[in-house]
Records
---
Amino acid sequence: MSDQTVGLSGLIPVSSQFLFEVDGVQIGIFGEVSGLELHVEVEEYSEGGENGYVHKFPGRMSWPHIVMKAGVTNSDALFQWVSKSSGEGYAAAGNKLNRCTGAITAIGTDGRRLRAWELQGAFPVRWTGPQFSVGSSEALQEELEIAHHGFKSRTFSPS
């Protein structure tokens, strides 16, 4: 297997956490990210007289929402972003959504940035706060769900 198919410098990268930023502003650090997927619809065309196969063509692309869990935000940046894309902030902008660029960055166990996925046209659609119980020793966690129009990925050079 070549170094390009295995990962960074021939090693399979291991991430200990995921940093989420919006337009360069840190929103929070999370322990779990799901929904980083791409779906391409397939259009089929049955050609008359060709019985051996059906032609297949790429169709519309779609991306599910991103869900980040097991994290806690440490500033008001998340709620400032939410207020711009819903409620009074949305109304004050003439009901026009200001789509942002969100970035999910995998952080290695040594604190280095390994790889980032830049979400195009991102906006928040759901937030769940921590569950409180005096009888629990569970860590406080938040969950954030984001809609977007696709992503680009970028690998950081090892230092």
---
Amino acid sequence: MKATHVHLRIGQINAHQSGYNMASQHRKHRGYRTQKCVGEYLKKWFPYAESAGAGRQGSDITGVPFDIEVKARSAFQPKEWLDQTRKRADGKLSIVVMRFNGQGEDAGEYGAMLRFSDLIQLLNKVDYSEWFQEPSRCQGCGTWLINDDYCTKCKDHNASL
């Protein structure tokens, strides 16, 4: 009787491990597929962009002038991911591309994250002259307004000076 009991327990463990391995393999394949989707999406602007494949150290996407880490995980660990890219970026702009649960294979819909200082550097290189005007103050509450004559704080429609 004890031998049968042990046999069932071993069978239960193997079934459990098998289910875990299947789920683990699914997540792994989802990650590989996500990398491929990101690479294909970037080809519109960077014709040599492609997934680095599995097990390679460094950027998940090659053929682009920046470092990309692709994540297709349910666990959200943004600081760890930013630290990971910063350590290997070697002066390149580092970006984390995130495929959230429930998202399909349209990489244009994925989230992206970068360090705030990197974002500010990018924004400073953009030519704002066509759409940016000098900020003004709301006449009602003094809040700064940019390209807007409507103050969202005090709801004044003719707020700019």
